[in-house]
Design brief:
The complex is a heterodimer of chains A (about 180) and B (about 450). With about 180 residues, chain A is of the alpha+beta class. Chain A has a single domain, classed as Nuclear Transport Factor 2, Chain: A, CATH 3.10.450. Chain A contains 4 helices and 6 strands. Chain A is globular. Chain B is an alpha+beta fold. Helix content of chain B is about 30%, strand content about 25%. In chain B, helix 6 runs antiparallel to helix 13 and helix 9 packs antiparallel against helix 10. Chain B is built from 15 helices and 22 strands. The chains are: A alpha+beta (about 180), B alpha+beta (about 450). Chains A and B meet through strand 2 and helix 4 of A and strand 7, strand 13, helix 8, helix 11 and helix 12 of B.
């Protein structure tokens, strides 16, 4: 996780050509997830070394010092195999939740990409909004900031190595988060 | 002759027939009554002692619609206060947890000690001219607080039975995993999210619904490959003798699937968990005997009435906090055995959220049923119809080996019936004394029921 928590991570923007490649990556990812191509996303865009983390932070005073128990709950902390369980579940013919299909719309904005100490790794920060419409009456919205580490694979394409989201709502309004963020 | 309001409430549940009116899951007036008669009288889970180990440690949580602060005192006792400033009634403590010598209101600056005393009032002499009696303005203290093997419960009703009596026969089962295991810790902070369901729907599901597992969770079973995977798609029932159902006087109930210690945890966890469970079982068997020790290495799903649910081997610990008739806030902790290595505790904590947390690939399947069961109860015609909890009706019995009332097989609705039997007595009574009078013959109430009543 050190790549994502380094204070210098915002220092050096990638060049325009690289930024275009990163933007293309982010938009393609949103399109694959919106259009139920989770298998393609998983096999082509996710590194087998992935760590996919979504946390939620307990409300504490800014100056709290004496209460030292952990303040994060890990809504997601999945490796490649564990993410694969979710992808497999999505395609199960008896996965009742997604039949009739849910409708998704992902918006990825504020994309910034930065160089890291490793020339094959790029740190990317973006803001996202996902809407999920389901059955006749359910519409859920998810707003969040992503911090991603992309790595260039041996085949030359970018893949997702780390995703870290500290979800902003203490008590999540959106029913459940069984949706890839 | 018109019926009294208590008699009308009693009609919501027909114990002998094993049915409840669908209305119970979506009704404004009933919800308001439940806040008074169920949440105002029952023992409610607040926190685990491990979350407030030191003097001044506190957490905030809910008791029905009231918000409370739970504070460890200097003498290690625990006090619980309404989280409401005595001056103009704003929320006093706006954080989830911390360590504090006291609490200061953000509105006018009234300050209270960790013991609830009003200690400071800005410009007290100048503005109140010594006419404010601070002793009469301490925080409102919750009547009853007790800890059971580290699990802290509070009760708003001074006339309620002691926590141990309230747990009754159920304590025998809780003691196995809460105490004989070497003790339990909850790993916090809890995940929190909202489901659009009545608080009783998840409570009744956890109290005793093994029936849905093989069907609702088909996709989770097939993709996660937990020890329950053979149930996927209802291709097989657990064989006769594979489990147990138990209910008790005050509505607490559970279901057991024998020897399934690893629970819903995914395939990658099974080997390590089963090795841990079997090793400890071998020790417990010598102390407790085979029958009781077996419950430790089994999977228990249960609800402590009214809204505190658990899955033992899966490590899931829940509170279903009511907000509105069809809006419930879900708190999810991971529970681990104290003597487990830290690395295993951490893996379980992540696995609990992965399966039964906000993004849980099991939980989200349940949510769907729970939300629609609640939504449909809003139908003008539907709400007048009854819900069927008749599986195993007429077959419940008392077993010399197992306290409480036991169902005849692993899958049934014994605990649903016991849960709603007590619910009926609570909402149709004006006091704990009346509740106890009505519940005196609870076993006879539950056995001998017939589905054609």
């Amino acid at each position: 996780m050190s790549d994502n928590t380094d204070d210098k991570r915002f220092e050096k923007c990638v060049d325009d050509k690289m930024l275009r490649e990163v933007e293309h990556f982010m938009l393609r990812e949103a399109r694959l997830l919106d259009t139920e191509q989770l298998k393609e996303w998983y096999e082509q865009m996710v590194s087998p070394e992935i760590r996919y983390v979504v946390t939620c932070t307990q409300l504490r005073n800014r100056n709290e010092r004496r209460y030292t128990l952990p303040d994060k709950v890990y809504i997601y902390d999945d490796n490649y195999q564990q993410l694969g369980v979710r992808v497999t579940q999505f395609y199960d013919p008896q996965h009742w939740r997604v039949d009739p299909p849910e409708q998704y719309c992902r918006m990825v904005t504020n994309i910034e990409a930065f160089e890291t100490d490793n020339k094959d790794k790029i740190f990317v920060r973006s803001n996202c909004l996902v809407t999920r419409a389901r059955r006749a009456y359910e519409v859920d919205q998810f707003f969040y900031t992503r911090e991603d580490l992309l790595i260039r694979s041996e085949q030359g394409n970018l893949t997702l190595l780390n995703r870290t989201i500290d979800y902003p709502e203490r008590s999540v309004q959106g029913r459940n988060m069984l949706i890839l963020l | 002759m018109t019926k009294s309001s208590n008699e009308k409430m009693a009609d919501l549940v027909n114990v002998k027939a094993g049915v409840q009116k669908h209305q119970i899951h979506n009704d404004e007036a009933l919800f308001a009554l439940e806040m008074e008669k169920v949440f105002g009288r029952s023992w409610l889970f607040l926190t685990h002692e491990c979350s407030i180990p030191n003097a001044g440690d506190y957490i905030t949580t809910r008791m029905g619609l009231d918000e409370v602060i739970v504070v460890r005192q200097k003498d290690q006792s625990i006090k619980v206060f309404l989280n409401v400033c005595r001056h103009r009634g704003v929320r006093l403590c706006v954080t989830d947890a911390g360590n504090a010598r006291g609490f200061v209101c953000n509105y006018h600056g009234w300050s209270y000690g960790a013991n609830g005393d009003l200690q400071g009032v800005p410009f007290e002499e100048a503005v109140y001219k010594n006419r404010l009696d601070k002793c009469k303005n301490s925080l409102h203290e919750i009547a009853r607080v007790e800890s059971y093997h580290g699990f802290v419960y509070g009760c708003l009703d001074p006339d309620a039975p002691d926590l141990k009596d309230y747990l009754g026969d159920f304590a025998w089962y809780l003691d196995i995993w809460m105490e004989e295991s070497g003790g339990i810790e909850l790993i916090g902070p809890p995940a929190r999210c909202f489901i659009h369901a009545n608080w009783k729907v998840p409570s009744e599901n956890f109290v005793g619904d093994a029936y849905h597992v093989g069907w609702t969770h088909t996709s989770a079973l097939r993709s996660g490959q937990s020890v329950f995977a053979p149930l996927a798609g209802n291709t097989a029932l657990p064989p006769e003798g594979a489990g147990l159902q138990v209910t008790s006087k005050y509505g607490h109930g559970l279901g057991v699937l024998f020897d399934a210690y690893a629970g819903v945890n995914g395939a990658e966890m099974i080997e390590d968990l089963m090795a841990w469970g079997m090793a400890k079982y071998a020790k417990l068997e010598k102390k407790l005997g085979e029958k009781r020790a077996r419950l430790y290495k089994s999977h228990l799903n249960g609800t402590i009435f009214p809204n505190n649910s658990f899955l033992t081997g899966s490590g899931v610990f829940k509170v279903w906090q009511p907000h509105e008739p069809t809006k419930t806030e879900v708190y999810t902790w991971a529970m681990v055995e104290k003597d487990m290595p830290d690395e295993l505790k951490e893996r379980i904590a992540k696995s609990v959220q992965r399966t039964f947390g906000i993004a849980g690939y099991w939980e989200s399947e349940d949510n769907d049923n729970m939300e629609s069961e609640s939504h449909m109860a809003g139908g003008t015609i539907a709400k007048e119809k009854v819900l069927n909890a008749q599986m195993g009706l007429g077959g419940d019995f008392q077993d010399p080996d197992y306290p409480g009332l036991v169902g005849e097989s692993a899958i049934g609705e014994t605990s649903y019936r016991g849960y709603y039997r007590f619910y009926r007595d609570l909402i149709s009574s004006s006091s704990w004394e009346e509740v106890n009078e009505k519940s005196e013959n609870w076993v006879e109430d539950l056995i001998g029921g017939k589905s054609n009543v």
